[in-house]
Amino acid sequence: MFDENSENEVSGAATDAGRRALMLGAVGASAVLTVRPALAQSAVSVLNCQIPVPDPARAGQYIAADGTVVAPGTVGAFVPAPRPFTGQEVKQALSGLNLPGTSYTQNQAYLNYIRRLQYGQSGFTCFASLQMPGR
Amino acid sequence: MGASTYAASLPFKSVALDGLSAIYHGASGATHVVAEPVPQILEALGGDTLTLAELLARLGADYDLDDDAEAGLSARLDELVALGLVIAR
Q1: Where are the domains of chain B?
Q2: Residues of B with CB below 8 A from A31's CB?
Q3: What is the helix (H) or strand (E) element at residue A32, kind and residue range?
Q4: How many CB atoms lie within 10 A of CB A85?
Q5: Which ipTM did the prediction report?
Q6: CATH 3.90.930.60 applies to domain B5-88
Q7: The pTM is what?
Q8: Strands (DSSP E) along A56-113, which ranges?
Q9: Which of B17, B45, B65 would you mutate first to test chain A, the one with the most A CBs within 10 A?
Q10: Could you point out which of A1, A9, A24, A32 has its C-alpha 20 to 30 Å from the C-alpha of A133?
Q11: What residues pair up with B85 in beta bridges, in sequence order?
């Protein structure tokens, strides 16, 4: 048979013993070690990094609704963004806000372009950084 | 010194590590490995803004404090303010 009361008695005794001395004036640094990871800085830089739409190699070309880069003047496509977007702007756009200065459909086209970015294209590293957890 | 109230700089996450505590401070991204009485001070502050006397009273309710507790606590708070874990106002 189990003694169901024994556990309660033990925890009751532990509560009394829980009141203990706290040495506030103890000599010696209370902070033993501080780790400042490079990650702390990169979290800032990620939000300030830039994503040109389109990348400079294809400057002047238009962005179609599906995010592909098309010839200037293509019907239904959007003019290039006048300036690169920051990581912060893209992060907000991914969560529902429009990119600055864009209409709803223009915003969708630009975001589709950004989602299609691949390694080596300008802005890819910035966009990839935004996907990391905690950003 | 000279500050009238103290508050913990939120958010932070504290993990007990075999006698020490690792405290991840969200605002700075820094992790501090600290010894007693730092985790106890931060826990006593909680989300409140307290005077030195109020904080001392809270700690005194949970722990037996040493004779020179007020001066000790003041010194620890200064260290925590320097670290950024506590905000003095």
Answers
A1: 5-88
A2: 32-34, 38, 79-80, 83
A3: strand A31-35
A4: 26
A5: 0.79
A6: yes
A7: 0.50
A8: 62-63, 69-70, 85-86
A9: B65
A10: A32
A11: none
